[in-house]
UniProtKB/TrEMBL annotation, chain A:
PANTHER family: DIPEPTIDE TRANSPORT ATP-BINDING PROTEIN DPPD, OLIGOPEPTIDE TRANSPORT ATP-BINDING PROTEIN APPD. This is ABC transporter ATP-binding protein. The keyword Transport applies. Residues 5-256 form the ABC transporter domain. It comes from the Bacteria. GO terms for molecular function: ATP binding. It is found in: Cell membrane. It is a peripheral membrane protein. InterPro entries: AAA+_ATPase, ABC_Ni/Peptide_Import, ABC_transporter-like_ATP-bd, ABC_transporter-like_CS, Oligopep_ABC_C, P-loop_NTPase. CDD domains: ABC_NikE_OppD_transporters. Belongs to the ABC transporter superfamily.
Automatic annotation (TrEMBL), chain B:
It is found in: Cell membrane. Its main location: membrane. Keywords: Cell membrane, Membrane, Transmembrane, Transmembrane helix, Transport. InterPro entries: BP-dependent_transpt_permease (IPR050366), MetI-like (IPR000515), MetI-like_sf (IPR035906). The keyword Transport applies. Gene3D superfamilies: MetI-like. Pfam families: BPD_transp_1. This is ABC transporter permease. The lineage of its organism: Bacteria, Bacillati, Actinomycetota, Actinomycetes, Micromonosporales.
Length: 335, 314
């Protein structure tokens, strides 16, 4: 398995008047060619900032700190000049966003916007780009694309718009598609359709997917690998089956336990994680999950645990220092 | 599929009838009045010269001191001025200058102001600082005084008048566009465009700017009224279009000594200026309402439909 994207010690900080927001503070991720990595975590854990950092779309006051490395296809993106970065954006790495309602420019037709993405990287004339746009729209399952290219975004439903976004993102057969909560704004049936479409495209085109979500159902549906983020750091990584069946980090376990299941009763109420994600202005010393962790002991509050290797997984918990800790997996929880 | 089900033919879709801006403006009370007034002015500019043509007196420069300061008569409907020139002919010919100055100045103001405002709001940083402090300086001068000083430097004349009025009015467009760009640049679609590899420059001119122009469309007619007023004021002070040319402001200025003996010579051009400014202000007012989507829902049914819904059984 070759690593297509290798993020090492990524730290993205925002310098504001009230202090330094360390939104992403030492993230390591690996996306393998043709596979799907899902990044899960609560709001504010730094998922989206990680994605934007990879795209090189962090605006002031945000700044990727020196020492971070984002190696894509053998090149460190952080060392590339903006010009080269732009030729990679949209061609080799593309991104789709959470809000299909506002991610399309309301003053142009959807056909124009897909064609714009095509023309940004290919030397084709307007006619060729329009033909490609129709082809792409057919690929993502938009009916009668010849007519729909003349539609404006407001004439389409949310699901259709997300399909248009995906079509534009696929204009140059990218190697990596970053999807930042692509289905959060859609209703469940449309959500399933979009996920199905993405899986289908991944298998047909061999595009690797880095998917950001807070929905564990989506992870189960889509992922080959999972990275669990908490407070600007990755706390656990591994294949989806390993992480779901044998979570090694107490946070992962708590996250899995807080998924509501159909048929829950008063005797087995939904478990929640007490407390809030700490502020990125001042992370707690030691393990950042310690204040909310039921298994925390003294060392947790003093020393930040590194990622320990446990079988094929990696987990940042002192309990894993000596090997796998016994924990409740999905099956056990849902039983 | 059984044989009886024929393949579905694509359903014919009627193109939705677009509710054109003009139609909406005509439905709005104040912009309708503005448009009617404006249509009158345009008609005078286009057809007027043909109607008054024919006799030597139809030349706005034709002087006949023997007939100076006559009251209205069959041969001179609005009388003559102190040099015996036909007042009506001069007003009709003058319409084009006033409108030309107004439109010229606003178009120039938009062409200077919009790009500056867009750059300022989009790039922020020192570009913004530089442009905004420059605008502060320009705005520190009273609008009219600035135009006056510019004409004094450039010299009178139609072209210089347009330049002076434009320079006095462009800062407002800069501020307007900047404010609008500042909010549009944060819209998710700009980030989406960047993520697709669209260049920064293209994001600004093709995505951010077109989405920021609505306030300019509303401001432009209002600015037209004020440009006409400024231009007329300069004309009145003798700094506008040069003497024999029958520009309304200049005509006012020429006859100011006669304000007590022959007030009609000031009244007619004054009314013309008033009407023009009123027309543009009404239009601008209506445009603001019509382009505001929050007010759109209060739109009434077209008269045709209202009548239909009143009649039962048809």
């Amino acid at each position: 398995m070759t690593a297509l994207l290798d993020v090492k010690n990524l730290r993205t900080h925002f310098h504001t008047t009230s202090g330094v927001y360390r939104a992403v503070d030492g993230v390591d991720l690996t996306v393998h060619a043709g596979r799907t990595l899902c990044v899960v975590g609560e709001s504010g854990s730094g998922k989206s900032v990680t994605a934007l950092s990879v795209m090189g779309l962090i605006d002031a006051p945000g700044q990727v700190q020196p020492g971070s490395e984002i190696v894509f296809d053998g090149r460190d993106l952080l060392r590339l000049p903006e010009r080269q970065l732009r030729s990679i954006r949209g061609r080799d790495i593309t991104m789709i966003f959470q809000e299909p309602m506002t991610s399309l420019d309301p003053v142009y037709t959807v056909g124009y916007q897909i064609a714009e993405a095509v023309r940004a990287h290919n030397d084709v004339d307007r006619k060729g780009a329009t033909e490609r746009a129709i082809e792409l729209m057919r690929l993502v399952g938009i009916p009668s694309p010849e007519r729909r290219i003349h539609d404006y975004p407001h004439q389409m439903s949310g699901g259709m718009r997300q399909r248009v976004m995906i079509a534009a993102a696929l204009s140059c057969d990218p190697k990596l598609l970053i999807a930042d909560e692509p289905t959060t704004a859609l209703d469940v049936t449309i959500q399933a359709q979009i996920l199905e479409l993405m899986k289908d495209l991944r298998d047909r085109l061999g595009t690797a997917i880095l998917m950001i979500t807070h929905d564990l159902g989506v992870v189960a549906e889509m992922a080959d690998d999972v990275a669990v983020m908490y407070a600007g750091k990755v706390v656990e990584t591994g294949s989806v089956t390993d992480v779901f069946n044998r979570p090694q980090h107490p946070y992962t376990e708590a996250l899995l336990q807080s998924v509501p299941v159909l048929g829950m009763s008063k005797e087995h109420p939904l478990r929640v994680i007490q407390g809030m994600v700490p502020s990125p202005l001042n992370w707690p010393t030691g393990c950042r999950f310690a204040p909310r962790c039921t298994e925390a002991f003294d060392r947790c509050r003093e020393e930040l645990p590194p990622l320990f290797t446990v079988d094929d997984q990696r987990s940042a918990c002192w309990l894993c220092e000596t090997g796998a800790r016994g924990s409740a997996g999905v099956e056990e929880i849902y039983r | 599929m059984t044989e009886s089900t024929a393949p579905l033919a694509p359903l014919p879709v009627a193109a939705p009838r677009r509710d054109h801006l003009l139609r909406r403006l005509l439905r709005h009370r104040s912009s309708r009045l503005g448009l009617i007034l404006l249509a009158g002015y345009v008609a005078v500019i286009v057809v007027g010269p043909l109607l008054v043509a024919g006799s030597p007196t139809s030349d706005p420069h034709y002087q006949n001191l023997g007939e100076s300061l006559q009251g209205p008569s069959a041969s001179h409907w609005l009388g003559t001025d102190q040099l015996g020139r036909d007042e009506l002919v001069r007003l009709v010919i003058g319409a084009r200058y006033t409108i030309l100055i107004g439109i010229g100045a606003v178009v120039a103001g938009v062409l200077i102001g919009v790009p500056l405002g867009a750059l300022s709001g989009f790039y922020r940083g020192w570009v913004d600082l530089l442009i905004q402090r420059f605008i502060d300086i320009v705005l520190a001068f009273p609008h009219f005084l600035l135009a006056l000083a510019l004409v004094a430097v450039l010299g009178p004349g139609l072209r210089n008048l347009i330049i002076a009025v434009a320079l006095a009015s462009f800062p407002r467009f800069v501020r307007l566009v900047r404010a609008s760009v500042l909010s549009v640049r944060e819209q998710p679609f700009t980030e989406a465009a960047r993520a697709l590899g669209v260049s920064e420059r293209r994001v600004l001119w093709r995505h951010v700017l077109p989405n920021s122009l609505t306030p300019v469309i509303v401001q432009a007619p209002l600015e037209l009224g004020s440009a006409i007023l400024t231009a007329s004021g300069l004309g009145f002070l003798g700094l506008g279009v040069r003497q024999p040319t029958p520009e309304w402001g200049t005509m006012l200025g020429e006859s100011r000594d006669l304000i007590f003996s022959n007030p009609r010579l000031l009244t007619y051009p004054g009314l013309c200026i008033l009407g023009a400014i009123l027309a543009f202000n009404l239009l601008g007012d209506g445009m603001r309402d019509v382009l505001d989507p929050r007010l759109r829902s209060r739109k009434r049914l077209p008269r045709r439909l209202r009548r239909l819904s009143g009649k039962a059984g048809r």
